[in-house]
């Protein structure tokens, strides 16, 4: 079945360490996204990529980095510069352009990061 | 910029009760509107959508009508079940070129037997 796989599901990190969250999709979607979810704040966009080898900052990109070397993969690195990294991270993908379904996001199951 | 405001939760209902979760939005042009649902420990899933004024989205007994005159997209269900307990997010995507999806803060629904 097509979908988005995020790993790990749970991750613990010491302060000062960088961690990388994996996101892989087999939906053949061009666009991919990373969101951060905190209680009572909904979802906030960290980074997005509309095509391979290109990505843009979202609303809260500071302290995060991404790469998009392959269409199916969009890993997120949470760096030591991120002041409050404990959160639930969600990866999503969508069709690009104006095709039917281009507005709809498909989400992975999420990764919960806890900084000790 | 675009914004979505939805009623705060948690909302607690008895099984078979009627559900309304209010959602209003601010956006230029003609955005597409969505309701997503998140079950505990999972990612979000699309519940329903509407892409133009007066469209009604529906799925699994849930409905929402795109009301441009009141900039609203309220979610309704006539008879909730315990399995509907989840967090519901209203969202919009602006029209024209690339537009990000803007989410509301989510409304937690708890249905008790």
Question: What can you see in these coordinates?
Answer:
The complex is a heterodimer of chains A (116) and B (113). Chain A has no helices and eleven strands. In chain A, the strands form two sheets. In chain A, strands 2, 4, 5, 6, 9, 10 and 11 form a seven-stranded mixed sheet that branches. By secondary structure, chain A is mostly beta strands. By secondary structure, chain B is mainly beta. Chain B contains no helices and twelve strands. In chain B, the strands form three sheets. In chain B, strands 2, 5, 6, 10, 11 and 12 form a six-stranded mixed sheet that branches. In chain B, strands 3-9-8-7 form a four-stranded antiparallel sheet, with no helix packed on it. In chain B, strands 1-4 form a two-stranded antiparallel ribbon. The N and C termini of chain B lie far apart (41 Å). The interface between A and B is medium-sized, with 20 and 20 residues.
List keywords for this structure.
heterodimer; A: 116 residues; mainly beta; 7-stranded mixed sheet; 0% helix; globular; B: 113 residues; 6-stranded mixed sheet
Tell me briefly what this model is.
The complex is a heterodimer of chains A (116) and B (113). Chain A has 116 residues and is mostly beta strands.
- Percent of residues in helices of chain B comes to under 10%
Number of strand segments of chain B: 12
Class inferred from helices and paired strands of chain B: mainly beta
Q: What oligomeric assembly is this protein in?
A: heterodimer
- Whole-number average pLDDT of chain A? 92
Protein chains sharing the most extensive interface: A-B, 20 and 20 residues
Query: First CA to last CA of chain A: what distance?
Result: 36 Å
- The count of DSSP E runs of length 2 or more, i.e. the number of strands of chain A, is 11
Mean pLDDT over the full residue set of chain B:
93
* Shape, per Cα inertia axes of chain B: globular
* Intertermini distance of chain B: 41 Å
Element order, helices and strands of chain A? EEEEEEEEEEE
- Beta fraction of the residues of chain A? over 45%
Largest sheet of chain A: 7 strands, mixed
Q: Low-confidence parts of chain B, pLDDT < 50 over ≥5 residues?
A: none
**How does the helix and strand content of chain A classify structurally?**
mainly beta
Rg of chain B, Å, rounded:
14 Å
């Amino acid at each position: 079945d097509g979908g988005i796989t995020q790993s790990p599901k749970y991750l613990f990190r010491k302060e000062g360490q960088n961690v990388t969250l994996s996101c892989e999709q087999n939906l053949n979607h061009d666009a991919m996204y990373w969101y951060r979810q905190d209680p009572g704040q909904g979802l906030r966009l960290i980074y997005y990529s509309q095509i391979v080898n290109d990505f843009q900052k979202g609303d809260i990109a500071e302290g995060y980095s991404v790469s998009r070397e392959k269409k199916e993969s969009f890993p997120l690195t949470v760096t030591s510069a991120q002041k409050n990294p404990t959160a639930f991270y969600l990866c999503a993908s969508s069709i690009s352009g104006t095709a039917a379904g281009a507005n709809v996001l498909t989400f992975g199951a999420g990764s919960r990061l806890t900084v000790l | 910029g675009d914004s979505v405001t939805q009623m705060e939760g948690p909302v607690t209902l008895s099984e078979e009760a009627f559900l309304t979760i209010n959602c209003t939005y601010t956006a230029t042009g003609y955005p597409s509107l969505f309701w997503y649902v998140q079950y505990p420990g999972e990612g979000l899933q699309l519940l329903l959508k509407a892409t133009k004024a007066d469209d009604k989205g529906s799925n699994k007994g849930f409905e929402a009508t795109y009301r441009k005159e009141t900039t609203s997209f309220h979610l309704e269900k006539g008879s909730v079940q315990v399995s509907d307990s989840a967090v519901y997010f209203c969202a919009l995507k602006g029209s024209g070129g690339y537009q990000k999806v803007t989410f509301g803060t989510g409304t937690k629904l708890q249905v008790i037997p």
